[in-house]
Every structure is written in C-alpha cells, then in structure tokens.
Amino acid sequence: MAPNKKSVVGFEDEAALVRTAARSLKAHAILVKAGKYRAGELKIIGPAKPPRSVSVVANVKENTDSLFRVLLLSHELREAGAKRVELIAPWIAYGRQDRVVHPGEEPAGLMVGRLLSAMFDRIITLDAHSQAFMDSYKGKLVDVIPWQTIKAKNIDLVAAPDHGAAWRASYAADALGVPFVVIEKKREGKIVKSKLPLGTKAKGARVLLVDDIADSGGTLKAAARELKKAGASQITALVTHAFGLSRLQRHLRPEIISIRAVFDHAAGKLEPEAFGMLVKAVR
After folding, report:
1. 25: part of which helix (H) or strand (E)?
2. What is the pLDDT of residues 185-242, one digit of tens each?
3. pLDDT band, residue 155 (cuts 50/70/90)
4. Where are the beta strands (DSSP E) in the chain?
5. CB atoms within 10 A of CB 258
6. Hey, what CATH topology would domain 147-267 get?
C-alpha cells in the first residue's frame, strides 16, 4: 500500500460498514481482527505502515470491549506512524448517561466523550443524544443530524415525545413545512406519563413522532396515547437509533401504525442516505 493512499480501518466483524465507507471515500479498506491473549485480555494488530491520515470506522457499543478496542486501534495506528486519526462511529453508546442522577454516580457518557476525544483528532457520529454528551468531546465531535433532510408524505404535525427531542422535532417540522409540538413527559417509577400542551390542535391530524433513541418504546407509546386522546387520526414514528425495529413495531401498535429507524441496531441496517451524510462530514 502506498504511504499516501487514503485508508479506512475497521474490525472484521463490521466488515460491511468498513467497506461501504471505503467505497464512499474512494479509500483502501483495512480489516483488523480483534482477539484475546491467553489470559483473556483484548488484543488487536493494526496495519504496520498506515498513511499519515486514517479514518477508523466502528460502532462504539455498550460492551466494554467495543470501546476499548477502538481506543487500542487508535493508539496502535499512531504508534505505527499515523499523524491524524479520526473516528466515524454511527453509534456511540453511553450517550444517555450524561448527568448525575444519584449521589456518587459517574456519568459514564461524559467519560466516554473524554476518552474518545483524547485518542482521536475528530469524531463523527449520528445524532448524539444530548448537548452535555456533545460538550464532553471538547469541540472534536461532529454531530450529523438526519432530520434536516427528512422526507415524509401526508404529515400535518410533528411531535417530540419529550423536551429532549424538541430540537429534533423542530428540524423535522422545518424540513416538512408543518408545525411541531413538544409533549410533556413524566416518569412515575417505571410508568411513563405524557401530557399535551394546552391548545394543541391535533384533531384529525396525521402526526409524526420524532426521537433519537427507541429502546423499550415506552415514551413513544405514552406520547401516542395522548395524541389519540386529542383526536389525532394517524400516528407514525421516526427515530434515529432503534434497538430492534420489528419488536418495537409489534409493541407500539395499535397507537402507532408504523415506525421507521435510520439505524436499526438489531438488524445492523443503517439507511444509505444517513451513512452518506456521515461520509460527507469526513470530506
């Protein structure tokens, strides 16, 4: 490999993601195998002679090996001579752990941000959860927002299921040319309760619920029930990250007739348009 050739590096178990990025960037794809030492510690071997500038493509998942191997790879690339190493990560876990809830608790998301920003020159991700999480990267995080180019038909109103999704709903509403509303959310133990603001005009409306993450779907379901009570005729949902889209579709019916995810983590499916936006941010 020529020393000045652009390279995209990632792990063998995410080969499809790495190769897609390489094709988009017209770069050389290098796959790295993550293994274990005899005692069980994580081991990786990166390219012996990487170019001066390298893009690492990898999701940072919830398990500790996923984070540690990305950090190890960055260190290995620099030790081998790379001067600039950036990370393209459609998903970075721990984003929701961005504040102290109980005394003595460590907001792990902020630590993850500090670790990644210490090891990479730039980090590009898809719809980071909160401003506090983004701030932990000290200006090195590029947050790609899919809502600014959203396309959807037959939508009269965009709704955020809580205040955390308010700016996402605002972007989506602007793109679609419709109004938006922010629903009040309150947790009582494991129960999620929602309340529409006074004066919300939802009767007969076709509503699109917008959020960044859908795991159990409880927040979306509670919001949809309130919209139904207010007379909404049809409710659909669109989220950036879904942890099992088919399961969510079953759970959310009949309140929500369909849900779409930009990145379905269970199936490993990332919408091509969103991936294109990530790659465009690299250029």
Report:
1. helix 15-25
2. 877 666 676 787 766 788 999 999 999 999 989 999 999 999 999 999 999 999 999 9
3. very high
4. 7-11, 28-32, 34-36, 42-44, 53-57, 84-89, 122-126, 141-144, 157-160, 180-182, 184-188, 191-195, 206-214, 234-242, 258-264, 269-270
5. 12
6. Rossmann fold (3.40.50)
Torsion of Cα atoms, 191 then 192 then 198 then 199, to 10° = -130
Residue 219 φ/ψ, nearest 5 degrees: -65, -45
Instruction: Supply the CATH classification number for the domain 7-144.
Output: 3.40.50.2020
Q: Cβ distance 56 to 73 under 8 Å? A: yes
Q: Which residues pair with 55 in a beta bridge?
A: 8, 86
Q: What confidence tier does 2 reach under pLDDT thresholds 50, 70, 90?
A: very low
In this chain, the answer to whether the domains covering 7-144 and 147-267 adopt an identical fold is yes
Query: Which sequence spans correspond to the domains of the chain?
Result: 7-144, 147-267
Q: What's the pTM value of the predicted model, to 2 decimals?
A: 0.89
Highest mean pLDDT among 95-104, 135-144, 148-157: 135-144
Torsions phi, psi for 121 (to 5 deg): -80, -25
